[in-house]
Structures are given as C-alpha cells and as structure tokens.
Structure prediction request, 270 residues.
Amino acid sequence: MPPHLVNYTDTHAHFGGDDATKIVARAVAAGVTRILAVGGNPDLNAGAEAAFRAEPNPVRLALGLDRSQSNVSADGVNAFESSLAAVTLCAIGEAGLDYHHDAATRSAQLVLFARMLDLAARRALPIIIHTREADEDTLAVIDEAGSDALAAAGRLGVVHCYTGGKAFARQLLDRGLYISFSGIVTFRNAEDLREVSAYVPADRLLIETDSPYLTPVPLRGQPNEPAFVPHVAACVARQRKIEPAALADLTTRNAEALFGAWLDFSATQP
Ligand SMILES: [Zn+2]
Prediction:
C-alpha cells in the first residue's frame, strides 16, 4: 500500500467489541492515521481503553463520565478518578449536558459536568464536551468551572458533534473552545450546520465520526467507523472552498494542538 500524503484525524470514535484492530486497520488504509477513542460511561470507557491498548499507535484515549452517569455518587466519581491514575490520557470525555434525552436529570448533570471540568483541571487535560438543547447551561458551567481547566492545560477543549447555531458557536469560540463536526454535517437537511462549519476559524476546527453512530452521506445504512471521516472532511472542505487535503491537514494540526502529538507518521512519507 502506498503511503498516504493526506493524514486524516478522527477526533471522536467509540469502540465496543473486540474488532478494534480491524476497524483501525481500515481507518489507516483510508488515510485516517490518528484516532481518538472516547469514553463516557463504563461500557464506552472500557471499549475505548481496549482499543487504545490494542492499537496504541494510531489510537489515543479519552475517558470520562457523561450525562448518562449523573446518578453516580460522589464516591463513585472519586473511584472513577482514582482509576485513571495509571492511564495515559490525552483528554477527559466525553462529558456535558443533554436535555433532549435526559431532561429529568438536569441538576445532577450540571453537578457531574462541573466535576469533569474539575477533573480536567487537576489532570491538566482538555475536555470533550457534549451539549444538546442545553446551550445556556453549558456556557454557565464552563464560566463557573472552566477557568481552572483552561489555566491548568493551556487549552479548554472541544464541543464535539456540533449541531448548534452560529451564535452559540461564537460564544464557545470566545471561551477558547474548538468545535468538531461529525457526519451530521453531510445530512441533506443540515444546510445551517454546513454554514456554521464554514464560519468556525481555521485554527479551531475539528472533524470526527462519533462512530459507530451518525454514518455520513453517502454511506448511510451501515455502521459508522473512523475510516469514513474523509466524507466529513470532504463536505466541510467543499463548504469552506478548500481542498479536502488542506482540510485534513489543518484539522490534524488542530487535533495535535489540542490533544498533543500523535506518533510521527511523516517518516513513512516520501
Ligand atoms: Zn460521542
């Protein structure tokens, strides 16, 4: 296989079963040489960690407790934090608020999200933020609990799988956050979101699959995987009127600025 001149980075993928090695091999063959495996609940955390242990070269690791874990006790959160002591992480996540699916647990979600920001501060790591139908509260928690994380890590993190509007994007950018677009940006009815993907400054833009969910057009109907992130890149590149290779380049640079360098693949290139 010839070496790829274009290196894509999938900044957000979930792993479940024992097929991580095959999934990662297909990604690398498609030019996706950097993958961030992301947790959020016990199953996702275990899957991400297993993928990282199986393929520590292209895969890096983020672990966290998301809105589904807002019933976990303070002791449980402490135990989770202790379990991270020996793990090589490049981010905390995912974490955040979802009032679409989990509206009943709003106040507990707020507490857990703040706690994850606190954890990011203590580990000096960026955070991967999920937010749905919770714009104002997301900003409020960041304003209250985010400054220590920003100070400790030198960068705050990313709002992943972005689906919000331009005004919310502006507020997130003003707080130093990166914004990541998933396959949703390729959907037929996502014209507004495509406009936002052209609005985000070049040095704050990231792409992801959020696999195994949200398969991009034109691959709808099959499970998503990191190998498909070039379809997200092509869509955002078209919108920004740049070449897909340039989009791959700048989002890879941004991913390394936010999460730290992956292995140097340049040695394999001509
Ligand atoms: Zn996710």
